[in-house]
Structure formats: structure tokens, C-alpha cells
Amino acid sequence: MFVYADNAATTSISKTALDAMMPYLTDYYGNPSSLYSFGQKAAEALQASRETVAKYLNASPKEIYFTSGGSEADNQAIVSAARLGARKGKKHIISTQFEHHAVLHTLSRLEKEGFEVTLLDPHSDGVIRLEDVEKALREDTCLVTIMFANNEIGTVQPITEIGALCRERKVPFHTDAVQAAGHMPIDVQAMNIDMLSLSGHKFHAPKGVGVLYARKGIVLTNIIEGGAQERGKRAGTENVAGIVALAAALKESCDHMEENTAKIIPMRDKLFRELAKIPHSKINGSLEHHVPGTVNMCFEGIEGESLLLMLDDQGICASSGSACTSGSLDPSHVLLSIGLPHEVAHGSLRLSIGEYNTMEQIDHIIEVVPKVVAYLRSISPVWDELEKGERPHLI
Ligand SMILES: *Cc1c(COP(=O)(O)O)cnc(C)c1O
């Protein structure tokens, strides 16, 4: 049985998205900046897509900028706020330890340029506390950037409250909502969000297309220089087909959000319930504040990488830490940020499921994972020491 359980890394393209984009790859290939009506066909599709995206975020179409993905949107949001801040002598940024590297690495670059960055620690439940944001705010803070939902452990942050606090203190607030868009309701106005990033391939659109929402009045700095596309803020001939697919996929995901969630939650809960029966296992992240489909657990005495390879042999695609860090032997920065010891963080497994998964697939996972964990423990010197009492169990 083949089971794709890595939807937080990327998703399949939905039929709706593929059907919507296809004419712009074949028949209507004109450049939207052209004056002739053939190009205008593409320009109209772009405008319609912009309106759709705006509608589902409760934004205005003029506040939507199409990018090459979530990473670019994160980069542009952060750099824009930093440049604006620097002009006013404000060079302090607040973020968190468990952001995506698109945020963390942009912040490190700014640090080298003389910005001061405060990275808040989430609590052990994987949730950032409002009072910690409040304590970190300073006169010279030019940006608060805190992710909507974490990509490894799925925990959801108190975005509305953080947004309200930032608005009261007149500090721009950006959120990386890549894991939330299409999976949870987002309303940039009600949630007090000034800038927001999302990425098509996390909700069944193709890879390489994303959105930066920037509230009217936010001054953007270009990351890509060139032509006057995206109202001069993002150069490069638009990825028309990708953008059309992104809008179609966002519409489809949002229109079916309730029924998708109702399908995913019982599958996720079954995974948690059954896998938690494995001795010396631990569920990571609060289940109360959680995106529907992400399951993250640790199993003591094993290596996550070995677990993944053995799951692959059984047809199961899963991940340990984020795709971007796997391949390195460092444990996940997210799991360390919620206070897990290195030894425990090494034995992590992320299963992220979506509406295309079935209960039969979940049953397959539930049958395979305990066997693989037991096998890996049987050949693990660390597990041997734990069992003999030569070192204490940590979970
Ligand atoms: C996937 C992801 C990104 C990067 O998006 P791309 O479109 O792949 O560049 C950024 N942030 C989070 C939280 C993600 O999950």
C-alpha cells in the first residue's frame, strides 16, 4: 500500500487546480503585460485570481502580491519592514525560535547588518504566549513576525491577540501562514494581520507560486528587481498558470474546509491514540491549538532517519523534522525549542495527512509503525542501555 503522509512538506495538485491552469499552459500563453487582446486574456485571469485570493483572506485585491512561493513572501515581508524600520532608526525585530528557515535565515542576515533580533521560545506545548510578545516589544521594534501554524508540530499561535497587541503598539505584524492557508479560516482584518505569506503547494496547487498579502499602507521593498509587474513590487513575468491554479486551489480548500476537517480529524486522532500506545513515546505540541492534519511524535531509543527509511520500504512517506533540515544530522530546531532533549528529538516522526488520505491508509500506518519502532529498538545500543537501567528513560 502506498501512503502519502507528508502533506506538510507538499501536496498533490487537485484536479480542480490542474483543470483551471491547463488552458494557460496551452491555449492562452500570452504575456499579461502585452497590449493585444491575446495577452489580455492572461491579464484577466491574473486579476480574477487576485480577486479570489483577496476574497478568501478578507483583503482587497490591491493588497495581494504573487510571489514564487512562501519563502520569497517571507523574505520580502521581513526585509520590507526592516528597511522601513531602519529609516526611522528602529532596528529591533521580534520572532520565535521555531519559525521556518525562510524566516530564521532572513533574520540572521539582518542581524549581520546590525539589526537586533529577539527570538521568543514557545512553551513546551508549542504555543507562544502573548505576554512574552508584550514583554519583548520595545520603542525601536520595527516588526513582529510569528508563524500562524508550525510546520513540524502543527501548533497554532494566538494570531488575533498578537495582531491586536502589535496594532495597539503600532508595530507591523507579519505571519507566515503557509501551514494554515487552505486548512484553517484566515481573515486578515479580524485577525489584525499586516502582512501574511502563503504557498500554493501546501494546499494542492503546484510548487513555485505563493502570495504576500501586505495591508494598504505597508511599503514593500523589492527582492526581485526588473519589470513593473505586481504594481512594481515584484518583477518577472507572472507565473500565470501557477497563479490561476493557486486561486482555484485556495477557493476549493476554503469552500470544503469544514468537510475536509471533519474527515481528517478522526484519522489524525486515531493515529495519536494508537501510536501513543507505543511505550516511551511522546506526542509533541498542544492538541488544543492545532492544525487538523499534523501528527508529531517522538519514540525513545531510535533514530528518526532510520524510522523513515523503514517506513519508505512499507510504502509510507513521512518525515522527521522539516524536509529542509532532513539530510543533516542536527535534531529539529523546532523540537529543541519546545524543550526536548537532543536524544529524544532525534527519534521524531511527523505524519501530515490530508483529505485525500483514507482510514485504510491510517490503519496501515498504525500496523507498521509499532513494528518498525520495536525492530529499531531491538538493534539499538541506546535502547539496550535504557532497558538495563544503565541510563534513565527521558520519556
Ligand atoms: C513550506 C513552508 C514555507 C516555504 O514555502 P515554499 O513555497 O516552499 O517556499 C515557509 N513556511 C512554512 C511554515 C512552510 O511550511
Q: Which tags fit this structure?
A:
395 residues, alpha/beta, seven-stranded mixed sheet, three-stranded antiparallel sheet, 13 helices, globular, binds pyridoxal-5'-phosphate
Walk across the major sheet and give the strand order: 2-8-7-6-5-3-4
Biggest sheet features: 7 strands, mixed
The total strand number stands at 12
Shape verdict: globular
Rg calc: 22 Å
Helix content: 40-55%
Question: Which ligands accompany this protein?
Answer: pyridoxal-5'-phosphate
Unreliable sequence segments: none
Element-level helix/strand string: EHHEHEHEHEHEEEHHEEHEHHEHH
Strand content: 5-15%
Q: Which whole number gives the mean pLDDT?
A: 96
Describe this entry's structure for a reader.
It is built from 13 helices and 12 strands. It has helices spanning 15-25, 37-57, 70-87, 101-112, 130-136, 159-168, 240-255, 257-275, 304-313, 333-337, 342-345, 359-378, 381-387, and strands at 3-4, 64-67, 92-96, 116-120, 141-145, 173-176, 195-199, 210-214, 281-283, 294-299, 316-317, 348-352. It has a 7-stranded mixed sheet, sandwiched between helices. The chain has a 3-stranded antiparallel sheet with strand order 9-10-12. Helix 4 links the parallel strand 3 (92-96) and strand 4 (116-120). The radius of gyration is 22 Å and the shape is globular. It binds pyridoxal-5'-phosphate.
Indicate the topology:
Layout: E1 3-4, H1 15-25, H2 37-57, E2 64-67, H3 70-87, E3 92-96, H4 101-112, E4 116-120, H5 130-136, E5 141-145, H6 159-168, E6 173-176, E7 195-199, E8 210-214, H7 240-255, H8 257-275, E9 281-283, E10 294-299, H9 304-313, E11 316-317, H10 333-337, H11 342-345, E12 348-352, H12 359-378, H13 381-387
Parallel strand pairs: 1-11, 3-4, 3-5, 5-6, 6-7
Antiparallel strand pairs: 2-8, 7-8, 9-10, 10-12
Helix pairs in contact: 1-7, 2-7, 3-4, 8-12, 9-12
This protein binds pyridoxal-5'-phosphate (PLP).
